[in-house]
Amino acid sequence: MDNCDLEKLIVSGGKLHPDFTPEVTDYKMRVESSVNNVTLDLLTSDCRASSNILFGDGSRTIKLNDGSTRVEIEVVAEDGTIKKYCVEITKLSARIAELSNLSVEGDIPVHPAFSSKVYEYNSTVPFHCNAVTLLPSVPDKSIKVTVNGADCSQPVLVNFGDTVVEISVCSADGSNSQVYTVLVTRGLIPMAVTFTDWKQQLDYECPVSLSAFYRPVSINHSDPKHTFSRPYIEMLARRSKVDPLSGRPLGEGWKVTELDLDRKMSSSLVKCFFNYRGCDRVMKLSELGSHSLDCPHKPSGDLDSKDVTETSWYKKHFKSSSCLEIETKHTLQVRNWEKKLQIATRENSVERLCALAQDYLKLYQQHLPKPGCVLQCEDDQSPLHSLEQAARHYASAIRQSTREARLHFLLGLVLEEQYYATEMYGLQRKAYRDRDELSDGRSSARQDEILAVCKLHGFMGTPTVENQLQALDKEYQQLKEQGQSSKADYVQTLYMWLSKKTGKDRNLAVQDEENHSAVHRALMKYLDAWSLSPDSWEYNLHVGRLLLLQGRSREALQHLQSGLGLRPLHPALRLFTGLALLQQEEKASEETEKEASLFLQQGLEHFVSQRCSKSWVKQDQSETLSSLNTQFLRGLLTLGQLQQRNTLCAKAMSAQQVYHTVAVLAAQSVSQCVCRGEVSRQLEWVLLDAHFALLLSLVQQSERQAGDDIKRQSPVAKRCQALSALIHLTSIPPCQELLDMQEKTCQLAVVTTPRDSYALCLLGLAQLAQYGNDPNSDRSKEAITDARLSFQASIDLESRRQHGEPPEQLTKQRWWQERQEAAKQAIAQPKVVKGPSESSVAKRGARRGRGGPGHGRATAAVIKPPVPAPPAPVRGGKVARPAAKTPATRGRAGAAAKPDRSTKASSNSTNKAQLPANKSKQACCPDTVETAEVTASPVEDRVPVYSPMNRRSHVSRLGLARALSHSADTQDEAKQLYREVIAMAPGVHDAYAELVQLLEPSDPLAAVDVYCRFPLKPVAEQSFEDAFITGEIVRLLMAQEQYHHPQLGPSLAAYGKVMGLSSIEKYINILEEKSMTNLLRSVYSTMHGRQEDDEELQGFFKFKCWI
Questions:
Q1: Angle (deg, nearest 10), helices 1048-1059 and 1024-1039
Q2: Which end of the chain is more exposed for a tag (fewer CB within 10 A), N or C?
Q3: Selection from 111, 113, 31 nearest residue 71 by Cα
Q4: Which residue numbers delimit the Cadherin-like beta-sandwich-like domain (predicted)?
């Protein structure tokens, strides 16, 4: 009687959404532009019920127009009950040009999620993927779609890095079109690329990874063009907003994507990774990834147990019934920190607690920040919170089952990961951040401010902590005398912060001896697990590698050999056993070296075979053979050193191939570090050492080559420039080893091209930095003399060609003379340059890598810099001497104590030890050389057709001026050079400040005239650096009581505008006492941007009795 439902509702030309059911009354459907009519097919559930179409003339055929048409259907039951169904039909316009969906074949994700009004997408594919097929869907089959101008079903070949795919959509009537773009990015190949053509190898080499450009980008307006792999230049730009190769500031829009270069490079021919194993295939770079998966010469990963069972130590301890005796004595106990981890829970099931811990570990991995991203979240949402919860659940499981070794081991893995969470990703609990340390950004800002105060008081570069505290104390006292209490309080805050930070840093070296280090706790848990199950190869592996980090190499070797005896085919056990063999106190025998080399090579090849497989997924820090594991990378560097003597001959990588592999892996890992912590610094050391080893190898190779000078010199010069740039921008704290590497690199550049003005300038800067590090040593006296000679040679060679005899100033330097003498002896008696012993280098690298804050560093990979070996075999273990104080270059402190915040991001680049102590950002911009094509002439018969011309640069003059300013006898020459710098580069602040420092004692007004020549911007655009200039003008004029000087008023107003009114209160009070009311009115009106007759200002002037 009252049934008013429809049993069937079908509309031709489309599909209802949702699917029809009698209970649902509202539907929508969409039809194509070619559909002009639709027909309704209706049937009521009750045959006695009736239906009416409430549209048009009531016909079941509905005429459609473009857009939406609403059709209502009224169903009347037998008793008169009425029910209405509604169908909203949308006819697509023939003018629509859009997609309804977009995906990539193979379930490859596209980001962001598709929307028809979003036109740009990106997708990442594995490195072995040669082509992709896009699957665009259209709402109207009359809409035409092409992919890169071809049929959309055709696969698109992808480049080595980025490929832009364009999906062109044309409306049904052809009147409109729309383009969707998908940026397809291939994963990064984990090995170094070798081109068949040497020129392409040079042209396509990234300065950071020393392998083929990956997603290349260039620096806008760089000349010549400076190109980098995208991940690495973005990493460097986050540290300092300067071009790494020229030091020029990066402006807006500095990054230029080089898609054409990517495409051209992808079609170039390269050799197979496994050429050293006999593969002679040559292919396009874009095909290299897919070939590496199926190459028949790829290491299979299969190992021979005889490599272990035939060793003398195995026969001695494992072939008989006796076992290897281990010295380690350890007792299982519950420590206080472990008790604090245990949580109160009703859960008594160990399995359930472990399952919860695993869930938290998955959350941790999902929420880790990406490179370049700063994670900001509450404590309970932080990845570190998930990690801590996993540790708590494992600790609670241990309480339930104390004798289960596996639980102790799993807790150890989590504790070790906590170290990486804080050091690599910068994760820290909010309470700890607030109590112990500021965020990285604020900490860096405070350090910049401290260095700015140091410069005001004559402590240049990166002074010792004692000098920094001394400068802050002086600034505090002077600000108190000037009545600037608020600024004095802030300086006092900086003083307290630095004191606290220094105390914390000094305790790092002994932290492992206490029960507060996450790595120390991890070792304790590994030892707990081992004590319960000493026959576990896995527990012996982790105990052994962490003992290596602590320098306990004898114990470590015992654990690792025990594990390897139990599991002879395990590649990680082999690699770490090889490392331990070379780190023993006694010198390794030739047989031991071969055994260690074999184990290290097998570890490397296992890693490569894993990375070159479809089953490989993103690595994490828990893997012992991981490019994030500095210990593993250090082992590869050691392998490279062994291979310099061809320790392994059959199907083994050469030393250069090993070093190249390390450089590629280290560069990838450094770029993944979100935080510039200890892990990042250790990885950077590996990268620098690999660079330096390759540079020395290249130099030796070029010295053996005859013929084309360009072919020999260009790679060396390029590598020297790249390594200098990396040292300049490193986050490693200034130390003597870094200075030595920088100086050696610059020397090699000069040896390669002795008449290159730019190379000589860099050498002078490195030598000047050596002097600034310890001005009172005998070595520093030679360094300052050499620096003067290098700068003078650089200046003399300007506007001259680089071809010819070495300049006279270079031949006077002792290091050059010694090198020339060594070269003569080498000609008389050829001899291979030999680096330090592998065992000694392995020992120096003992305490670095995964597992703890390594504190020292091994020397460069091939030739040891001339520094005494540190007492502890770890980077940073010794206290390196920062740059010492140099004569003050900026007069007293009326000037800005804060740096220019607009350039704060680049501050790190100006504070490194390898730069002259007082070098500014502008001074870091040496001009590059230009190439000149010349025609042969009688005068230049011996000059090659391609001979670069040295450009003029202010940097060499600034460096020479600084070197001369250290001696009273040469300060007049220094003054003249500073004037030349100002004429050539008027915007270099330091040139003015340093010249004034020399002039002020004898002629203060001449010093004022120097500052007045600085090209100041309008007051509204002035930076803190500019405010330093105006502040100095005010200070000098007020000290000389030059109240009527025309520059006093404008400078006072500009300084107060930038630094704040409180910064000029002392001067205002003095001027009031001197009744300089006209000047005061002018200053105040300028600062406030108003006319003097402004009504509000007039009231203020009357109140102050200035009118």
A1: 140
A2: N
A3: 31
A4: 19-91, 99-186
Q: What is the tens place of the pLDDT at every residue in 591-644?
A: 999 999 999 999 999 999 888 888 776 655 567 888 889 999 999 999 999 998
3-state secondary structure 916-933: CCCCCCHHHCCCCCECCE
- Among 125-139, 661-675, 836-850, 910-924, which is the least confidently predicted range? 910-924
Cβ neighbours for 45, distance < 8 A, ≥ 6 positions apart: 3, 5, 6, 7, 22
82 SS3 class:
strand
Of 432, 350, 339, residue with least CA distance to 385: 432
Whether 1018 contacts 1008, CB under 8 Å:
no
Tens-place pLDDT, residues 1025-1061:
888 899 999 999 999 999 999 999 999 999 988 888 8
Angle between helices 405-423 and 678-704 (to 10 degrees): 70
User: Residue 129 pLDDT more than 80?
Assistant: yes
* Chain Cα centroid distance, residue 296: 36
Q: 62 - beta bridge partners?
A: 38
Please, which residues have CB within 8 angstroms of residue 752's CB and are 6 or more apart in sequence? 699, 702, 712, 713, 716, 717, 720, 759
Query: CA end-to-end span of the chain, whole Å?
Result: 100
Number of Cβ within a 10 Å radius of residue 652: 23
Query: Which DSSP string corresponds to 704-772?
Result: H--S-HHHHHHHHHHHHHHHHHHHHH--SPP-HHHHHHHHHHHHHHHHHSTT-HHHHHHHHHHHHHHHH
Query: Which two tokens mark 73?
Result: 């259907």
83, 5 contact by CB (below 8 A): yes
Q: Which two tokens stand for residue 464?
A: 């010792």
Helix (H, G, I), strand (E, B) or coil at 24: coil
DSSP string, 490-528: HHHHHHHHHHHHHHHHHTHHHHTTTTT-HHHHHHHHHHH
52 and 74 in contact (C-beta within 8 Å)? Answer: yes
The three-class DSSP label of residue 319 is: coil
Spatial separation of the C-alpha atoms in residues 587 and 86, rounded to whole Å: 90
- The answer to whether 123 touches 108, Cβ cutoff 8 Å, is yes
Tell me how far apart the alpha carbons of residues 866 and 739 are, in angstroms, rounded to a whole number.
11
**pLDDT tens digit sequence for 993-1032:** 999 999 999 999 999 999 999 999 888 888 888 888 999 9
